[in-house]
Structure formats: C-alpha cells, structure tokens
Amino acid sequence: MKERTYSVLLETIEKKLRSGELHVGDRLPGERALADKYGISRASVREGLQILNAVGLVRSATGSGPKSGAVVASEPSEALSWAMRMHIATKTFPIADMVSTRVLLEGQAAHDAALSEDSPERTATLERARAYLTELDNPDLPNDRFHFCDARFHYEISSLSNNITLKTVIQSLHQATVSYVMEAVPLLDDWSATKIALQEQHWAILEAVTNHEPEQAKERVTKHITWFHDLIK
C-alpha cells in the first residue's frame, strides 16, 4: 500500500480549524504523536509542518518539553508577500499589474477608512499614521526607514477599512514590491524632491480620511500611487 503523505496532516488541520476544534494559539502534538495518529512517517509530518510554516499557519518552537512543537498561528501577509515576490521575480506578475491592483484595493480601503465611525480605536490608529508621517518629514531619515514608515502609514489607513482580507492583501503587496521600489529610488534624479512630494500626498490622504471625505481619500490615494510608480517605472 502506498504510504500516506503530509497531505493527510494538512487536510486534517484545515478541517479542525474550520470546525473550531483547533484555534490560533493551540499547540500541536509532537512529530511522533502526529505520525502515529495519522499513520504517516515523521519525515512526512516534518514536511507538512514546513508547508504550514511557509504559509503562516504554524510557528515552530524549538526546545523540549511542553513548550516545544508547532503552534497554530495566523500570519497570512508574510506568506502572500513571499509568493508575490517570487512571481514578480519570474515576471509572472508584471509590476504594472501589481500597481493597478494597489490602486484598486488601496483606493477602496481609503474610501472605507474615511467612512469609519469615530471611536477611540480610530483616533489611536490615526495618531499612529500621523506619527509615521511626522517621522517621514525628517529629511535625514535613512531610505530603509523611510520605506518602512511609508508602508506602515498605508497599513494604518487600510486597517481603518475594517476589512481584514483587504488589509492583509494590501500589506502583502507593499512587502512584495518594496525591493523593486528600493532598487528604483537611487536611479531618480532628485530623491529629496520626490520625498517632499510624497509627503504632501501622504498628509493630504490623512486629512481626507480624518475628515470623513471618502471620495477625496480614494482619489488622493489613486493619484499618489500612480504618480510615484509612473516616476520610477
């Protein structure tokens, strides 16, 4: 009889997550216990756990005792961004298509963010966004920190859309394209002037979202994304 493979483990964990029998934060049994339970080899268990780790569904803890083994997690953006980066590298996902997708998704996210109701959580999120923009105003900010704060600003705005899928995909798109952006920036004629223009756009987006102006927020995000990528393409 053909040996059962790691797919048994993946399918079982999916079913248990769907049924509610397994939750984020739960610890999976050890390799030997999983192998015995599902009638597969420990090598197949390890392969299955590696796949689950790659897609952000488990975190493997090292060591021994009750705190060792894999823990169920929920980190989809890392897995999505990794897959997107690989497909960008193979030219399967053209950068132009990624930009168009960002325009569609982030425009909608900014629109929905502007419509979000006032609350302590909204105020706190807007303050975090404002703090990132304040840091971005520093002309001496290193480029890697600039790109980090830029991405975090967009993440905070998208989080106000109250759509976890939208927020996750947007975060993944940023992570997937950051290498492309960082490679293009040194080729610009005047990066300092570009940063000033980007910041003016960022502050305008924040203003529209803060003031509950959905159409303005959507329009400003759309112009912001297309302007920058037209500059570096």
From TrEMBL:
Keywords from the named record: DNA-binding, Transcription, Transcription regulation
InterPro entries: GntR_C, TF_FadR/GntR_C, Tscrpt_reg_HTH_GntR, WH-like_DNA-bd_sf, WH_DNA-bd_sf
Keyword Transcription regulation annotated: yes
SUPFAM superfamilies assigned to the protein according to its UniProt record, in alphabetical order: GntR ligand-binding domain-like, Winged helix' DNA-binding domain
Molecular function terms, GO-annotated: DNA binding; DNA-binding transcription factor activity
This protein's record includes keyword Phosphoprotein: no
Signal sequence segment: none
HTH gntR-type domain mapped to chain residues: 3-75
Entries under Pfam families matching the protein: FCD, GntR
Protein name in the entry: GntR family transcriptional regulator
